[in-house]
Specification:
Blueprint (H helix, E strand, L loop, with lengths): L1 H12 L5 E4 L8 H10 L2 E4 L9 H22 L6 H15 L1 E2 L4 E2 H10 L1
Parallel strand pairs: 1-2
Antiparallel strand pairs: 3-4
Length: 118
């Protein structure tokens, strides 16, 4: 799956992925993933285990999506917790459509849309 994703990003966006970072969680610590990294020229970097503060951007986004947006959506709509994954996916979609990147003064969606037109 990651091999397909790397190829797709490189072809569609005309950019070269250069680094993959994981947290020693075990999902990406295997020979098959290392071969994929080698094939696509990726550097596989690790952060220290059980230190989410080393990846602050992702942790902040996850906290925003799961704790703030998803919980608020569940609370406001009285939806069953069974649909929590769908609620988080929806909140991620909304997040990418409405939150503005401070440096670019654009949403993630607008940035991606412009790259597609190039």
């Amino acid at each position: 799956m990651i091999s397909i994703f790397c190829t797709q990003v490189q072809n569609e966006k005309r950019i070269k992925n250069y680094e993959s970072r994981s947290d020693h969680g075990g999902e990406f610590e295997n020979e098959q993933f290392e071969k994929i990294c080698e094939k696509h020229g990726l550097i596989h970097a690790f952060s220290c285990p059980i230190t989410p503060e080393q990846n602050g951007v992702v942790e902040t986004k996850n906290r925003s999506l799961q704790k703030k947006m998803a919980r608020r959506m569940i609370y406001e709509t009285n939806i069953v917790m069974y649909f929590r994954a769908e609620v988080v996916n929806t909140s991620c979609y909304v997040h990418n459509k409405i939150y503005i990147r401070p440096i670019l003064k654009k949403t993630s969606y607008e940035s991606t849309k412009e790259e597609d037109q190039l």
